[in-house]
Every structure is written in structure tokens, then in C-alpha cells.
Amino acid sequence: SGHSEEENVTFYSQDMNQGMQERMRLETGLRHALGHGQLLLHYQPKFALASGRIIGAEALVRWHHPERGMIPPAEFIPLAEATGLVVQVGEWVLEAACAQAQSWKQAGLPPIRLAVNVSAREFTSALPGRVSETLARYGLEPSWLELEITESTLMHNIDRVIGIMDRITALGVALSLDDFGTGYSSLSYLKRFPIDTLKIDRSFTTGIPSDSNDCAIASTIISIAQQLKHKVIAEGVETVEQLAFLKSSGCDEVQGYLFSRPLPAAEFERALRENWGL
Ligand code: C2E
Ligand code: CA
Ligand code: CA
Ligand code: CA
């Protein structure tokens, strides 16, 4: 029934070719995008629960494709990670975030922390120097910057990774552990990482308050963070029930659609002014 073996082979290789062609188109397109101003950053506010103030923002990259419109990072970051192009994307993102911070600083906006996502492949011994050089070039205090890294970054050579982390935190740049609880990092290593903030992954936030496992995981992460003297932020907060649970569990900061989607720079600036009563 159906196709013969031979036909199936042809179908599969055609599918594969199409997949590869699409990947190659994306890769060529992304290289081009980097050099032609097609990447941009949106900023999602982070709120301190105690004060209700916006104390930072996560910079999230977008690709404005001339024909295909706005391409979300989920469609090109994994490919960029596979090809190594993510290193150049990361350089662009750090540069753009610092340029934006400088302009907000010069406009007299309150000092906030801009968080930049850093993937494992960018987390090399060249990173601390690049961060320090970029901050200096834009005349920015290190307190303007935060790097979000995921557990997968910590899986490779631990001692080497800790060395890089130490050099970054020595600059005064904060480090947060993104998507916490979704990877495999061992709790025994957690105490060795010079981390400022643990970030509860959206997959746990989503289940609050109806899923008792997600509630247990979220409050456990909060208590681990408290005992290790780290701050803790929950991402993906969409409902007032989630907010209430997180607040009563002692979470420090929140981020999510309940407060704001990631915003273009000008809109973020307006939200920041309004939130601070400026
Ligand atoms: P992430 O670091 O976990 O970022 C959070 C993602 O959740 C963002 O998606 C954000 O828009 C989305 N989000 C925030 N609040 C909510 C909410 O309340 N509900 C829901 N459903 N979603 C929410 P985005 O911008 O599409 O980014 C996706 C992923 O792409 C990021 O996940 C991050 O891993 C990666 N990414 C984005 N920008 C960069 C970058 O500059 N460099 C690197 N290496 N990765 C990046
Ligand atoms: Ca992140
Ligand atoms: Ca995250
Ligand atoms: Ca996440």
C-alpha cells in the first residue's frame, strides 16, 4: 500500500533538500540582515514587586525581513546557534543594547538594567573583554547591563565557565540564570556560580495556580534563590492569580504580558517615564 521503497526515498530526500535549502536561505539572509540594519531590539520591562517600579528590561532581538516581515527569534536563533552565526548576532545585540542604554542615560531616564541574552557559543574567554570594552566605549556604568545565560551554557567545562563568569561579575555586570529548572544543572554546582538572579521559566509560571507541581517548583526555586542570596524573577506572568502567588511566595521581580509585551524602544521609553512618574 502507498509508495514503493524507492518512491519513499525520493520523497524523503526532496523534503530534506527543501529543509536544507530553507536553512541555507535563512543563513544567507541572516548574514545579510546583520550588515544591512534588518535586526532590531524590543524591550520587555522587568518590574520590582516591592515598589511596582520598572527596574530593567530584557532586550529581545527581532529580524525585520524586507519580504517576510517580522521574524521572531525562535525562527532564527536556533539556526544561528547551529551555524555559529549567533556570535555575530550576539555582538550586534550587545552593541545595540549599549547604544540604547547610552541614549536613555543621556536623556536623563532612571538608571535601569538592560538584560541581553547570551547563548552558550558566545560564552567564551573573549566575552568579558568585549563587554568591558563596549561599556567603556558608550560611557556606561556596568550597572546598566545584565547578561542572561541558560543552564546549557553551564554544562560545558564548569571550571572554565566559572572563570568567565567571575571575570564578568568582577566588572560589575550582573548575571542571571535564564529558564531556570528546565535544564540539567546540578544543585551542587549552583552554589559555585556567581549569579545575581535566578529566572523562573515560563513553563512553570504558566501552571500557576492550578497546577500544584508548577506551584511547588516555583516556590522551591524562590526559596533556593533566597537561601543562596540570589534575586529571583518570574518570566511569562500573564494573570493576576500568577502575580498574587508569586508575590506571596516572595518573588522579587516579574516580567510578562500581564504588565507588558516586549516593546519597540520608543514605546518602552514612554512606559518607563510613565511608570516612574516622569
Ligand atoms: P527567553 O530568553 O526565554 O525570552 C522570553 C520569551 O518569552 C520572549 O520571546 C518573550 O517575548 C516571551 N514572553 C515574555 N512574556 C511572556 C508572556 O507573558 N507570555 C508568553 N507567552 N510569552 C512571553 P521572544 O522574544 O520570541 O524570544 C524567544 C527566545 O529567543 C528567547 O527566550 C531567547 O532564548 C531567544 N532570544 C531572543 N533574543 C535573543 C538574543 O538577542 N540572543 C540570543 N542568544 N537569544 C535570544
Ligand atoms: Ca532571556
Ligand atoms: Ca527566559
Ligand atoms: Ca523561557
UniProtKB/TrEMBL annotation:
Coiled coil: none annotated. Transmembrane segments: none annotated. Residues 23-276 form the EAL domain. Signal peptide: none annotated. It comes from the Bacteria. This is EAL domain-containing protein. It comes from Janthinobacterium fluminis. The chain holds residues 402 to 679 of 681 of the full protein.
